[in-house]
Every structure is written in structure tokens, then in C-alpha cells.
Amino acid sequence: MGSYHHGRTARLELDDQTLREWDAVVLDADAEGIVLDRSAFYPGGGGQPPDHGVLLWQGVQTRIAGVRKGDDLRLIPVEGDPIPPVGTSVRGAVEDERRTALMRTHSALHLLCGVVFRDYGCPVTGGNMEPLVARMDFDLPEVPPGFKQTIEEACNAEIAKDRRIDVKTLPRAEAFAIPDIIRTATNLVPPEVEDVRIVDIVGLDTQADGGTHVASTRQIGRITVAKVENKGRGFRRIRIKITD
Fold it and tell me: What sign for the dihedral angle of Cα 98, 102, 104, 108?
């Protein structure tokens, strides 16, 4: 455990995406943010918003409204909540319902990306998500007849196959030897990153990715394609909803 770090904080959520509670020690703290030695709060990135949750210490609760990324990961307390002093032992807890919904949504976007790439050969130009709703933008010159329905059916067929979703880390050279590992139109992996985290929907989609995911496609639920929007030349936005 603890193979991922940001500054002084071991990022537990990247090793164990099911982890919701853990013990930690406060390394730095003020109203601007709290730095822990270990944290499972996803700090946001790659279109996935940061987690919410609480720190429990000495019978007190500090609510966490977000995370700020700098040299350290700073957990942002809700304004007015008490701040634990440096050296305090705390129990961290991620709000499970929100995180699980975001994991399902993030995995759904990868699945959508895999289906569109497999069936239409289109790269992704952008994306964003909130719990159980998301959008993804594609470089798709023409929208074929029945595209919305076809995509929705193809996505739910992949969910029904219950494909495993594996997460692993590979050395940069090995990762970039995988064909189409970068699905975005531009490579977002900074040059100084030596080890690349790979999310693999086995048999469908393999991408470099730093987010959190469910363990198999069946855990996503059901994907509804709410809308396909034309945003200009070759720029299509697909909006999806996730349901149980």
C-alpha cells in the first residue's frame, strides 16, 4: 500500500478504490487547508471532481468540502469548522455515496470512449462529470443516422458483458508502447511522469488515467445517452446519465 504520493501525502485511494475510512496524522493545518500523512480523498482531476467527507478527532468533526493541489494536497475545511492542530491523529472518511457515483460515472465515460473509438475511430477532445451525469466531446466529423440509440445500445451491451476493470502502473516507455493509450487529442501526461497509471476495461479500452473506477462494467449500472450536441465543425458532445 501507499505506492502513490502527492507531496507529503500517501494517496490511498489510488491503491484501494474501495477504501472509505482510514487513520492519519495532521502534518500542517490552517483555515486554507489541512495536510495529512495519508489520505483517500480524491483531489479532483481528469474531469473527476474532488471527494467530500469528514475528519473525526477528539470527539470533533471537521467537514471537508474539497481539495487544493499544490506542493501538498490541502483538504479544504467547510468555513467555520474546527481545524485539527498539527500532530493530531484523525480518522478520515470519504462520503461514500458521492464517491461511488463518481466512480461509476468515470468508468462509464471510459466505456463510452472505448465504444466510440472502436466503432467510429474518434479521439476524445474533452469531458466532464458530476455524480451520475457526464459529457464527453469527440472529434466526429459526421453523426450517422441513429447514432444516439446505437451508442446507447452498444454501451449497455458492454456493461452486460461484465468486463473487468483493472488498474496498474507501468513505466512510461512501456505504457506509451501500448497502441492508442492516449485517447485525448493531446497527450495530457506531463513529461516528468515516469510511471503511468493505466485503467484497462479488459477487452475494450485501455487508457492512461489518474481517477477512481469501479471493478467491473456491470457495476456502472445503465447508461442513457441523453443528448448528442453539435458544437461546431467535427465537434460532438455526448451527454450521458447513469441509472441503477
Answer: positive
pTM of the model: 0.93
pLDDT in tens, 51-85: 999 999 999 999 999 999 999 999 999 999 999 99
- Is-contact 199 207, C-beta < 8 A? yes
Neighbouring C-alpha atoms within 13 Å toward the C-beta of 115? 24
* DSSP per-residue codes, 185-204: SS--S-TT--EEEEEEETTT
- Rg of the Cα trace of the chain? 19
d(CA 212, CA 16): 9
Contact assessment for residue 75 and residue 36, using Cβ atoms and an 8 Å cutoff: yes
Sign of the CA dihedral 166, 169, 171, 175?
A: positive
Q: How many CB atoms lie within 10 A of CB 209?
A: 25
Cβ atoms of residues 71 and 35 within 8 Å: no
Pairing verdict, β 195-201 and 133-139: unpaired
